[in-house]
Amino acid sequence: MKSSDYIGLAVFVCFGLWWVLFPRRVWEFYCWFHSIRRQPPRPVVIRLIGCFWVALVLGIFLLR
């Protein structure tokens, strides 16, 4: 494997971990990016999406 594969893996896993560790910041960024103000979902929902993202990225990486 190339070093770029590991760098890409790290970037995508860090993106998912951001969702898991800082769900309120993710929602604030989403609202800022789309210029909206809505009721945020429960933090557990955002964390589950982040866990799914990390599992998906790791699964794709391991199946390569």
Describe the structure.
The protein is mainly alpha-helical and 64 residues long. It has one domain (3-63). The chain is built from three helices and no strands. It has helices at residues 3-21, 23-34, 43-63. Helix 1 packs antiparallel against helix 3 (43-63) and helix 2 packs across helix 3 (43-63). The longest helix is centred in the C-terminal third of the chain and has 21 residues, at 43-63. The mean pLDDT is 93.
Helicity, in percent?
over 70%
Task: Note the main sheet.
Answer: none
Oligomer: single chain
- Give the overall average pLDDT: 93
**Helix and strand element order:** HHH
Low-confidence runs: none
* Helix count, DSSP H or I runs of 4 or more residues: 3
Give the helix/strand class.
mainly alpha
Number of strands: 0
* Number of structural domains: 1
Span from first to last CA?
A: 10 Å
Indicate the overall shape: elongated
Q: Cα-atom Rg, whole angstroms?
A: 14 Å
Taken as a percent bin, the fraction of beta residues is under 5%
List keywords for this structure.
81% helix, 64 residues, mainly alpha
Q: How would you concisely characterize the structure shown here?
A:
The protein is mainly alpha-helical and 64 residues long.
